[in-house]
Write a structure and sequence with these properties.
The complex is a heterodimer. By secondary structure, chain A is mainly alpha-helical. Chain A has helices at residues 3-14, 16-22, 27-54, 63-91, 93-97, 100-125, 137-160. Chain A starts with a helix and ends with a helix. In chain B, helix 2 crosses helix 4 (61-89), helix 3 runs antiparallel to helix 4 and helix 6 (98-124) packs antiparallel against helix 7. Chain B is elongated and about 60 Å long. Classes of the chains: A mainly alpha, B mainly alpha. The interface between A and B is medium-sized, with 35 and 34 residues.
Chain lengths: 163, 186
């Protein structure tokens, strides 16, 4: 572990947020429950957009129409996940650092956030006036990779608790 | 046969014990249960947001229900099967969990709400199918759905915590009564 990383983990561990969670019996479970509620919201928005991009659902509705509406709720879902996930991490910083599932989750998260805010965003919005209903090979690929990546992030996230 | 003796009967089965003590089967089933939440509650939530008139306002309600709800149904089937298996692995403790009992009550409430919604919808959906903001009864049904499924998620997660377990006495008398704890008089 680099000294920089060690300092950072200590800082997380000793922070007010982390200490409050560690000293509480119910705070961790409650934050975790809200993390799960965020998962449902985020998962729903991701699925609806990705199912549309792949053409597996809502084929009769223009991509942009689904994208425009779902995007805000996907954003809200991501905000809830980060707002609950970061405190959860801080309260168990050292445990998470040494946890393989957690590392897989973080790498997956970076990949999927990059994909979401570049390619996926473009595919959901760039045909906003075209009323595009057709699914291109690229839209199909973006939707498929997005679903798969989110699945890896969520599954690895659950596995953090088992290891 | 009481609920408890039924749970004890399940508990005595070799398969139940094997599942509970398995290294991978139990965590895998639980992970499937949790992840399917996205497929089930996630898609239900999207339809509810449409019914509330806050999302997909320019997509007809019938399009959302006919194209998205099949995924919810598939998700529910997976959640129900994995949920039964999780119960089967730890039947006695789960039966006596206050969180599990509240969860089941909310599940029943949610089922009644689904039934009510479909009856409501059958009556006159054609007249508001494309309305950005559906009538108040449909919106109430959507709000109830969001509240109950959220409650099911939260109580479901809390089953894992043993704060109110029967073997952690003393507990309030109403709690022991509510979960059917058999407490020997001191």
């Amino acid at each position: 572990m680099s000294p920089w990383m060690e300092d950072f983990l200590w800082w997380c561990d000793e922070s007010w947020i982390s200490q409050t969670i560690q000293n509480s019996l119910w705070l961790f479970p409650v934050i975790e429950a809200v993390h799960l509620l965020g998962l449902a919201l985020l998962g729903g928005a991701v699925l609806v957009t990705d199912l549309r991009l792949t053409g597996a659902a809502l084929r009769s509705v223009p991509i942009a129409r689904i994208g425009r509406s779902a995007w805000r709720f996907m954003g809200a879902g991501i905000v809830i996940m980060l707002a609950t996930g970061i405190p959860l991490f801080m309260s168990e910083a050292f445990k998470c650092y040494g946890n393989t599932s957690f590392r897989v989750k973080m790498i997956g998260l970076i990949v999927i956030l990059l994909l979401t805010f570049t390619l996926k965003r473009r595919h959901l919005f760039h045909r906003i006036n075209a009323q595009e209903v057709r699914v291109s090979a690229m839209s199909f690929a973006v939707g498929g990779v997005s679903m798969l990546s989110w699945f890896v992030v969520a599954a690895a996230g659950r596995w953090v608790g088992f290891s | 046969m009481s609920l408890l003796s039924f749970a004890q009967w399940l508990d005595e089965q070799a398969l139940s014990t094997a599942l509970h003590e398995s290294l991978y089967a139990y965590p895998l089933i639980e992970t499937t249960h949790v992840l399917t939440l996205c497929l089930f509650v996630g898609t239900v939530l999207m339809v509810d947001l449409r019914l509330l008139g806050v999302a997909f306002r320019d997509v007809p309600v019938s399009v959302m229900t006919s194209r998205v709800l099949p995924y919810s149904v598939a998700g529910f089937v997976v959640m129900f099967i994995t949920g039964l298996l999780l119960f089967y692995a730890i039947p006695v403790r789960t039966t006596q969990s206050i969180f599990f009992r509240v969860k089941v009550l909310m599940l029943i409430g949610a089922a009644i709400n689904v039934w009510f919604f479909h009856r409501r919808v059958k009556r006159d959906r054609v007249s508001w199918d494309s309305a950005p903001r559906p009538p108040v009864s449909a919106r109430i049904s959507a709000a109830v759905s969001i509240v109950l499924w959220s409650g099911v998620i939260v109580t479901g997660r809390m089953i894992a915590y043993n704060w109110f377990d029967c073997d952690r006495q003393p507990q309030p008398e109403w709690l022991n009564w509510a979960v059917g704890c058999v407490v020997e008089a001191a």
